[in-house]
Amino acid sequence: MPGPEPDRVGNSPELPRHADVVVIGGGIAGVCTALELSERGLSVALCEKGHIAGEQSSRNWGWVRLTHRDVRELPLMAESRRLWAGMDARIGGGTGYVQCGATYLCATEAALELEREAIRELAPHGVPAELLSRAEVMAQCPGLALDVVGALHAPYDGRAEPQTAVPAMARALLARGVGIHQDCAVRVVETQAGRVSGVVTERGHIACSAVLVAGGVWSRLFLGNLGIELPQLRTKGSVLRTEPVPDGPEGHLKYRDFAMRRRADGGYTVASALPSRYQLTPDSLRLLRAFAPTLRAEWRNISLGVGPSFLEGLRTPRRWGPAEVSPFEKARVLDPAPDDARIDRALEVVRRAHPAFRHAKVAQKWGGYIDVLPDVVPVISGTEGVKGGIPGLFVSTGFSGHGFGLGTGAGRLAADLITGAAPVVDLTPFRLHRFSDGTRISPKGSVIQR
Which of 49, 96, 111, 419 fits 161 for a cystine, CB–CB 3.0-4.6 Å? Predict the structure, then answer.
């Protein structure tokens, strides 16, 4: 069964000879940055090797959440939520954004104590959240057949529709004259006098003074060809959607076994909240030292295995030139098979737990690759200050499963960097050179969500 089909977006008729900025990647980080830059009067060419939102930007859970985030992301997420709320009016299209609230169900007192800590972390940022007793959970979810002791309820959490949101933004860009170039991989970045001067794509050359790499799981490979080290790995998530379910909950529900949210079509997106099986790749070995703190913190939540991904990694070229076919032209859209057993188990728990889902039918299943960094916090940064860095070259990647909700704010912050404007939030947590300047790298905990 193929992955989700995002709404299609038209292509610009010709590749421009010049643009102020070339954005590499047609996911939410790239599209939101292009939107910000265009509104600031810059000419932008957005190049995507496949099609808009073809990979994780259409395959994620669709949550736009403030809760269960690393505190380093919270200021940017607060800005992202504000931007999501105004996005439909801004682009004249539909993203499906709704502030629906989320309920994080707790099976143990220890889990409930962690939610108390989450509330304490949210408080300085003005984010409301409350603990619910078991009786309050049952009043909110009549008929719920789960052994819970309480829950955290977060009224500011929301959702949007991954298959429609980014394409709607991209269509708005097209209408404003921004170049959208799909099936157009960027091969290399060119420099002149020590700074960015252009890019070479599979269709030709574009002169520019700035480039943003927003390539998701492909970013490490692209930057590595330029001699820039990005300690990024990928992990697979599996998701299913149901046919419409009458009388299901309006807000998100998350439990130790599952996570689910209502869709605009009346169905539900359901995923497992249990540890996923991580397939080792050659990069897993190369980056073992960089990810050691994450492995120590998360070893209970990681199951390692060796499969086709290892051989695929060995076969993938790590160096190529402007006249050579790049790896991005050989794999336009990554569409991994879902872990059927894992998501089937999650749906079975949902069916038993909530009366509305007793006869819920699966409409589709899919897998997707998530780009992960050692501290589970993205890079939104220039490349100056790292070995091989180039003035005018910027990066927005490594969102570690948080990127869909964070994408609008990430676009604003990346545009601030590119234009030299005052950054909307402190740049320190997101700088690329934190991995090479002696900064202690540590993950907060299990915050990966899709």
Answer: 96
